[in-house]
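ABC transporter ATP-binding protein
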Amino acid sequence: MSASEDFPIVVEGLTNAFGSYVVHENLSLKVRRGEILGVVGGSGTGKSVLMRSIIGLQRPVTGEITVLGHAMAEAQGWGEIDIRSRWGVLFQGGALFSTLTVGENVEVPLKQFNPEIPDALRQEIARFKVQLSGLPEEAAFKYPSELSGGMRKRAGLARALALDPELLFLDEPTAGLDPIAAAAFDKLTRELKETLGLTVFLITHDLDTLYEICDRVAVLADRQVIAVGTIPELLALDHPWIQEYFNGPRGRAARETKDRQLTREGAMDKPDKAGA
Ligand SMILES: Nc1ncnc2c1ncn2[C@@H]1O[C@H](COP(=O)(O)OP(=O)(O)OP(=O)(O)O)[C@@H](O)[C@H]1O
């Protein structure tokens, strides 16, 4: 297997700056195929800028970004269009077109990248993606303003999945959702990752999401990715931000919830002695 197959996203020596304000300096990160990588860091550490750099919306000062084996600096013209059809993005807030129905929103990337698909088939694909994202079929005919926040996130996800992507970028997908809707969205993300074989780059502040669905977590601080690993691996590090984040009151609460859930699942897996 080649390096690009093992690691569909490779960032090396990335520097981003806005004027004299340096957001990233010599940042490196490798995302493994098939994982959900959670990306955390304090506000303003550059998580969204990193995502925008990877998908070619932010031109770095220096550094190399390789996505699915393509060097992003060289990705221009048709080559660039081709690679952009291989990922889906759910931006913060969903970024849906308010004057289009949910179904029409999902049709936008299909029209852009596959204009040869006949109208009726394109509409059917859009309706399928809407249902795949856990929305009722009739949601395809509604406008974003007619949906709840959780449904709008799912509509954004449906659009991100329009082109059967290999990579899925999610920027704070559970922000603003109530805990039940957030947990349902997490479950959907995990199920889609498993059934569709996606690699997921997931920016979040949601500790429950990290514990529930992320295979590894990358921590941004001091203009770099200072650590990448499973949560137990990160907990073993003595970086002050990591300790405060995962061992602070919210971090402990999320861990206790996960521990309780694992204990319950373990109890259910054990044979029933009384009935044995
Ligand atoms: N287009 C831009 N022009 C100037 N500065 C920008 C631009 N985009 C981002 N920044 C700055 O870069 C820094 C990183 O922004 P970014 O949105 O990536 O942070 P973040 O880690 O995603 O934060 P949050 O968790 O609050 O969403 C911030 O200080 C932000 O103000």
